[in-house]
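Minutes, project huddle
Topic: does the predicted pose make sense with iron/sulfur cluster bound?
PN asked that the exact inputs be recorded in the minutes so nobody has to dig through chat later. Recorded below.
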Amino acid sequence: MLTRKDFDGQETPTWCRGCGDFGILNAMKMALAEHDIAPHQALMVTGIGCGSKLPHYMKVSAFHGLHGRPVPVATGARLANHGLRVIVVHGDGDAYGEGGAHFISVARRNVGIVDIVQDNRIYGLTKGQYSPTSETGKRTPTSPEGSLDQPVNPLTLALAAGAQFVSRGYSGELKHLAWLIGQALEYPGYALVDVLQPCVTWNSSYSYDFYKDRVYKLEDETGYDPADASAAWEKAAEWGERIPLGIIYQADPTTYEDQVPALAQGPLVAQGMKPLSSAQIQVLLNEIE
Ligand code: SF4
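Predicted holo structure (tokens), as shared on screen:
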């Protein structure tokens, strides 16, 4: 039986003391252990940002890529070996800014990727510029007069893109976050886990104090049904005095992989693929003509 210690890495995190990324790291280890996914059965793909360093501090296979591009790398890895549990970890800038088009594409395709977004509503690594989820009027070094942009709502954007598993966690609710990541790991298609993650150094507007009296769990709400699309839209838009956590929407489990005939016989990497002979290539060319 696995424990979270089986996922301990050799490096010590360099995050600021009190950063919400510590909670996400611990929740990730707990979820993988509880769902019996061993380090060699998971691939973690990250972009650029404070939180994208997370797999440096875990024992897990990982690929640390370019800013905003972990989703296409993860999609390729998943289609090459859909026996792997593929997890993307990145911040709100990486996911909804530089990687925004990839976010929409993977959501509507329902590729089997768990997408953990460390949403601190700021660019932390580069010292506090406003990000896609920063509120209008946010004063930062790149918006000294206050941001003029409307913030992205990741949950409504995911619903509009066709995502079938849309959820929100909070790094200050460790057990709940571990449970939520576990639910995402069990879902066969694309699963968004937007995680409210305080950046204690650059964004005092969204502190632990801000969240502690506002967040509530949908599982505690009588009668909330994550399969109800209308209710999901309502909860996805709720932000202010009350902020919902949990599975906002969960529906169709038909994945992209389910619909690709070449994957029906198992992962491509296990199919003993060989290069085509020139005669076989000619047969294919003849089909096109
Ligand atoms: Fe965490 Fe913010 Fe420090 Fe980055 S800058 S490690 S997000 S607290």
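Observations noted during the meeting:
- The domain at 4-260 is CATH 3.40.50.970 (Rossmann fold).
- The CA atoms of residues 198 and 239 lie 16 Å apart.
No decisions taken; revisit at the next huddle.
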